[in-house]
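Justification of computing resources. Each target in the renewal requires a structure prediction run like the one illustrated here; the chain below, 119 residues long, is used simply to show the kind of job we budget for.
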Amino acid sequence: MSRWRREAVLDIYSLMVGLFLFSSPWLFAFTSENARIDIWATSALIAATSVLAIVMFSNWEEWLNLLLGFWLVFSPWALGFTHTKAMHISIGAGIVVTFMAALELWLMNYDPQQSSAPR
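Resulting structure tokens:
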């Protein structure tokens, strides 16, 4: 049996953000078709990569979530749904996903023993 990674909790949080984001077009009644399709597709990818990271961890899953988070932040301007509820939800969720992916990448690569070793 594999050992539980301490960083896996961040994948669970990313999964929850993905599920919230997937339901947000219904919860907030998005009017833009571009926004609905983009948020559904992006949130499905975030949820899928989060599940994959929980089940069988690989470094590329966090990099993909980092890119998807950046996409959520910039997609309102790229797809033309600025100044809408969808824009605010997309940017907020994108910041959270980007932060969690970056934090997990940092936690995986940070070695406290190496930084405290005498020079």
